[in-house]
Structures are given as structure tokens and as C-alpha cells.
């Protein structure tokens, strides 16, 4: 009251109660302001201490509180903050520094790793086969690495990991390069095979290569071409393999092309005989458009096949003619054996050509064979009384046919008889042979001229 009673503003409030109320309000407001100011000063002191500790070079996340108090206890920034608050701030600072150091270490590690990678990438003497000890020596000799202290202080484990990653990258590049090289080589080899296949097609079109070709025959022509030389030494199919595959493909077309050739021959009404030459055969084939796609070797094989069939037919025809001739010869022999009068050893053809009478013998049954009387040749006197027929009137055709039929019947009869006979069949064989000789009397055959008759007769007389 003593300080404000003489102030003119004191009388502004007439009542004492109002003055007291205004004083209390002022006092309360002033206390609040002082507390706020104190709080702000304490906060500012804490912030300064925290900033001071966080930025001080000697502070680390491992620095203890006692050591910090020894270092900063005499400084106002440290002492102005109460100890309780200092410890809380110090703990916060340690947490902040630990986080900061961790982030810095992470950034530094990242920077060192990238720098080391750049150095390794620029070192041409480091390959995927380089060892870690060799790489360390190369790094010490590198000026960029030697001038960088942070790189030299880099963690060895991080450096080793970086080196291993670099080696793996080099190995991957090497593998990819080898794979690319392999693919290029395979592509080139495939192109070489395709070129050689085209070369074989050219040889086939010119007629040098066909289904009957051999490698030894074709080698002189093949070996001089560059497409053959490009195939040498490469993996996969060899030129010989491709040649064999090509020839096998041509041979596989044989049956289809053989049908085409037969159709062409049928359309041209031409057949291959024994005396047909390949030139004539090829000449006939060449006129047809379908022959343009035929393989020369298959044409030759088809000709050989048809020629073999023609020769087989000719051999069968010859065998048939020989069988016919043997039948005629057998008929002629039977006629001579039953000649009346019988022939003598000193008989000649001119005297006996038309002096014998021949007749068809009657076939006797098997039951009457034992009771059959053997015919006797007439005496010369009786023969003179007989009328001698002309040889031109003999039933030669009937005799030949009769001979053939009787021979077949006797052959069947003997076959059945062999199956039924027992150990005492020696006697029955003689009777069977007798039946075959006396079951019929063959006559002369048709188609023998004078020279043929003379030859057959002379052959028979020589054998008898």
C-alpha cells in the first residue's frame, strides 16, 4: 500500500474492496507469468543442453553420464539444468546419438560398398577366377583405394561381401557370354547343316546322288566343296550322317515311286523283258511328267526288280518247255519200246521210220492186273501180213496227252501207296513199277520234225 497509495491511479477505484480485488487479480496474473517464464527458461536450458550434447564431438552413444559430468560440469549449459532433468536429457541424447550413429554407419557402409564396387569394376585385372588375397593386393596398388581413408577403414566383412558379389556378377557375365557363344556356335552349326543339306539336294538334282549312291563314290565330289569343309569338326550330325539320312529318305520313297513307274509303263503299254535295256526303260519313263520327281536310284532299282521278274518268268517258261520236252521224249521212248517188230541194236532210222504200227494201249484196272495177259509182239511173217500205216496218220497228240495224264495218275498212285506200305514193301515196289509201265501204251507226239525225232531216237538208243 505504501508503494501505490500516493499514485494518482490508486484513487481510480473508489471502494477498497474493488482495489483489493484488482490487486489479487494482478497478483495471480503475475504469478502465472513468472511460472511461465520460469518454465520457458528451463525448457530453453534443456534444449540448449540437449543440442550441446548432441553436437559435441566428444559425445557418443557409449559415453557414460559421469564422464560427461566431468567433461561439462563446469559449463553453465550443464549446471543450469537440474540434475534430474539433465539425466533425462542425457538419456534422450544417447538414444538420439545411437540412432544417428547407426544411420551414419549405414550411409558410410553404403558409400564404401559403392565406392569399392566402382573400383573393382574399373580394375581389368580382376576376373571371376581372382581370389580374395589377390584382390586385396590389387586394391592396395590402386590409387583411388589408397587415397580414400574411409575405404581403408571399411569393415573387412563388408569388403569381402562386396568382393564376393562382384565375383558372382563376373561369373554370371561369364556364364551368359559362354551361353551366347554356345548359341552362336549352335546357330552357325545349324546353318552349316542346312547348307550341306542344300548341297545334297543339288547333287540329287544333278543325278550324282541317288538311293544307290555310296559315300566312297560321292566323297571326291563332296570333299571339294566349302559346305563340306564347314561341317568338319563341329558337334552333332556329321556329313556322313546327313548323307546316310538323305539316302535312307530316298530309299523310303522306293515303293511309292515304284508304283508311279508301273503306272507310267502301263500308260505307255510297255513291259520289261529279259532283253530290255535300262536305256530303253529310262527313255520310256522320261516322257512322262511324273518322272521329274523320281529318284534315279529308285528308277534303277525298279528296273532291276522288273528285270528279275522277267528273268523269273523266262526261267519258268524254260522249265515248262523242258517239262513238255521230257513228256514228248517219254512218249517217244514208250513208242520205241513197244515197237512191232522190236528194234535191234543195229537198226537205223531210215529203215524203221515208217515200219512200225503203234496203237493206244488200254488202261487196265488194278484188280485185273494179275489176270492180264501180256501182249506178244507179232512175228515177222505176221507183221508182213499187217497193213503198215503212214506215220503222218499217227495220233501223236492224243498219245502225248495220254502220256501226261497217265504219268500224273501213276505219280499220285505211288504217293498214296508209299504211305500205306510196311516193311515188306520191297516186292510191291516192283509190281507198282510194272503197273506204271504197262497201264497204258503211249503213242507218238505232235510237233517233232525229222531232225528232232532223229535226235531223240539217237539219244534213246545210246542210253539203251
From TrEMBL:
Location within or outside the cell: Nucleus speckle
One Gene Ontology biological process: mRNA cis splicing, via spliceosome
Positions of the UniProt region annotated as Disordered: 359-441
Bias (Low complexity): 425-439
Any one GO CC term of the record: U1 snRNP
Ribonucleoprotein as UniProt keyword: no
GO molecular-function terms, A-Z: RNA binding
Segments of skewed composition (Basic residues): 359-375, 413-422
Record has Nucleotidyltransferase as a keyword: no
Record InterPro entries: FF_domain, FF_domain_sf, Prp40-like
Keyword terms: Acetylation, Coiled coil, Isopeptide bond, mRNA processing, mRNA splicing, Nucleus, Phosphoprotein, Repeat, Ubl conjugation
Ranges of Basic and acidic residues composition bias in the record: 402-412
Domain of life: Eukaryota
Residues in FF domain copies: 41-96, 109-169, 189-249, 253-309
UniProt cross-references to Pfam families, sorted A to Z: FF (PF01846), FF_PRPF40A (PF25432)
Chain coiled-coil ranges: 16-62
Main location: nucleus
Family: Belongs to the PRPF40 family.
Name assigned to this protein: FF domain-containing protein
Source organism per UniProt: Engystomops pustulosus
Amino acid at each position: 500500500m505504501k508503494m501505490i497509495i500516493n499514485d494518482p491511479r490508486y484513487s481510480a477505484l473508489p471502494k477498497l474492496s474493488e482495489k483489493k480485488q484488482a490487486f489479487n487479480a494482478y497478483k495471480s496474473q503475475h504469478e502465472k507469468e513468472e511460472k511461465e517464464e520460469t518454465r520457458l527458461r528451463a525448457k530453453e536450458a534443456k534444449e540448449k543442453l540437449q543440442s550441446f550434447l548432441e553436437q559435441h564431438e566428444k559425445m557418443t552413444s557409449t559415453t557414460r553420464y559421469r564422464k560427461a559430468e566431468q567433461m561439462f560440469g563446469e559449463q553453465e549449459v550443464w549446471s543450469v539444468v537440474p540434475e534430474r532433468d539433465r539425466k533425462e536429457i542425457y538419456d534422450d541424447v544417447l538414444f538420439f546419438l545411437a540412432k544417428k550413429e547407426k544411420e551414419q554407419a549405414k550411409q558410410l557402409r553404403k558409400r564404401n560398398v559403392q565406392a569399392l564396387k566402382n573400383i573393382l569394376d574399373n580394375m581389368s585385372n580382376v576376373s571371376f577366377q581372382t581370389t580374395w588375397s589377390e584382390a586385396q593386393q590389387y586394391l592396395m596398388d590402386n590409387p583411388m583405394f589408397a587415397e580414400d581413408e574411409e575405404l581403408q577403414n571399411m569393415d573387412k566383412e563388408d569388403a569381402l561381401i562386396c568382393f564376393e558379389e562382384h565375383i558372382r556378377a563376373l561369373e554370371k557375365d561369364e556364364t551368359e557370354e559362354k551361353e551366347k557363344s554356345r548359341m552362336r556356335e549352335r546357330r552357325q552349326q545349324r546353318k552349316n547343316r542346312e547348307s550341306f543339306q542344300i548341297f545334297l539336294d543339288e547333287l540329287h538334282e544333278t543325278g550324282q546322288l541317288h538311293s544307290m549312291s555310296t559315300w566312297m563314290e560321292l566323297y571326291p565330289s563332296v570333299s571339294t566343296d566349302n559346305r563340306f569343309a564347314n561341317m568338319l569338326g563341329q558337334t552333332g550330325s556329321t556329313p556322313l550322317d546327313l548323307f546316310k539320312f538323305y539316302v535312307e529318305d530316298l530309299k523310303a520313297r522306293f515303293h511309292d515311286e515304284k508304283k508311279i513307274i508301273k503306272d507310267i509303263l502301263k500308260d505307255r503299254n510297255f513291259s520289261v523283258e529279259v532283253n530290255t535295256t535300262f536305256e530303253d526303260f529310262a527313255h520310256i519313263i522320261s516322257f512322262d511328267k511324273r518322272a521329274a520327281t523320281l529318284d534315279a536310284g529308285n528308277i534303277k532299282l525298279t528296273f532291276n526288280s522288273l528285270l528279275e521278274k522277267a528273268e523269273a518268268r523266262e526261267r519258268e517258261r524254260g522249265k515248262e518247255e523242258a517239262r513238255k520236252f521230257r513228256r514228248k521224249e517219254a512218249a517217244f521212248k514208250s513208242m520205241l519200246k513197244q515197237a512191232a517188230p522190236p528194234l535191234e541194236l543195229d537198226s537205223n532210222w531210215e529203215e524203221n521210220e515208217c515200219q512200225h504200227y503203234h496203237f493206244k494201249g488200254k488202261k487196265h484196272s488194278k484188280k485185273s492186273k494179275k489176270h492180264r495177259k501180256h501182249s506178244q509182239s507179232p512175228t515177222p511173217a505176221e507183221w508182213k501180213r499187217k497193213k503198215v500205216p503212214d506215220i503222218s496218220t499217227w495220233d501223236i497228240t492224243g498219245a502225248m496227252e495220254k502220256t501226261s495224264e497217265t504219268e500224273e495218275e501213276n505219280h499220285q498212285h505211288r504217293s498214296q501207296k508209299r504211305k500205306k506200305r510196311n516193311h515188306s514193301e520191297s516186292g510191291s515196289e516192283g509190281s507198282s513199277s510194272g503197273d506204271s509201265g504197262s497201264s497204258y501204251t503211249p503213242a507218238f507226239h505232235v510237233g517233232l520234225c525229222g531232225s528232232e525225232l532223229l535226235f531223240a531216237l539217237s539219244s534213246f538208243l545210246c542210253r539203251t
